[in-house]
Specification:
The structure is a single chain. This protein has about 260 residues and is an alpha+beta fold. The chain has one domain. It is about 25% helix and about 30% strand. It has 8 helices and 11 strands. The chain has an 11-stranded mixed sheet with strand order 1-2-3-4-7-8-11-10-5-6-9, sandwiched between helices. The chain is globular and about 70 Å long. The two termini are about 25 Å apart.
Length: about 260
């Protein structure tokens, strides 16, 4: 696979090469995805798309297209809902936001690990990532039976201040307010050990009951569904491509899941 891209004459689209791995993993970790090279049930199905310099062939940006999620290993996220408590005779009416752990995107497709070479101007990052998103959509349109009805993307959530690995986990208000009460370690440690499977192992420790957001700290509540600094370029590229909020959030940092309906 090697293709020129319209609007980006100095770049081309190609597959991931063996020499790319260390560089791409470094970029992905900086964007909050925290990918591990560990083999996972879905890793043999995923396709990497790399935007490279047409002359030097050096990678500039990347993403990973997963045809279908959760068919061999459950993929977990929190659905963000709402319940109403009302008593007309008492004149009471109150709404509460809720979280419910589940596997709502089983069988759907995913764009994962959107990342760029560090230090690029924001507008260039957005242009590169949007080009990759459009290339992924073109691939899906050419073989619709291979993919789900919806394409989802997880975006990194809020952090109090920048950091990587376990330090970044500790900086997440959402993780401190919820997950840290049920798992003594850090999500990044689970990611490093299990790769994409980390969500399933971590989710086994999290409560299955509906959770009221009002039970969490104010900082944790405020972070639900918010895109952190590391996810801003990807969010801009996805918004320009028609993605919108899926009313779900990541189980580690509360970052939002966005989606695009394909058919």
């Amino acid at each position: 696979m090697s293709e020129a891209l319209m609007g980006l004459p100095g770049q081309r689209l190609r597959a991931k090469q063996a020499g790319d791995e260390a560089q791409l993993m470094h970029w992905v970790n900086q964007t909050g995805f925290g990918l591990s090279l560990a083999e996972t049930p879905e890793s043999d199905q995923a396709e990497w798309l790399v935007l490279a310099d047409a002359h030097s062939d050096s990678p500039l940006a990347c993403l990973r297209l997963v045809p279908q999620l959760g068919l061999r290993l459950p993929r977990y996220s929190y659905h963000v809902g709402r319940v109403v408590h009302a008593a007309a005779e008492l004149g009471l009416f109150r709404t509460q936001r809720t979280l419910l752990l589940g596997n709502d995107h089983t069988g759907e497709s995913e764009l994962a690990d959107l990342a760029c070479v560090p230090g690029l101007p924001a507008e260039l990052q957005v242009a590169y990532l949007r080009a990759l998103v459009q290339a992924a959509l073109a691939r899906m349109a050419a073989a619709p039976g291979t993919y789900g009805e919806t394409l989802i993307v997880e975006l990194a959530g809020l952090r109090d201040h920048p950091g990587e690995g376990a330090e970044a986990d500790s900086n997440s208000p959402f993780w401190r307010g919820l997950g840290a009460h049920f798992y003594a370690g850090q999500p990044s440690q689970a990611q490093a050990r299990f790769g994409d499977a980390w969500r399933s192992h971590l989710a086994a420790l999290l409560p299955r009951q509906t959770l009221y957001l009002s039970f969490l700290s104010e900082a944790a509540q405020a972070s639900v569904g918010q895109v952190g600094e590391a996810g801003q370029a990807a969010a801009a590229a996805l918004a320009a491509s028609g993605f919108g909020d899926a009313q779900h959030v990541r189980i580690d940092d509360g970052g939002p899941l966005w989606q695009l309906r394909l058919r």
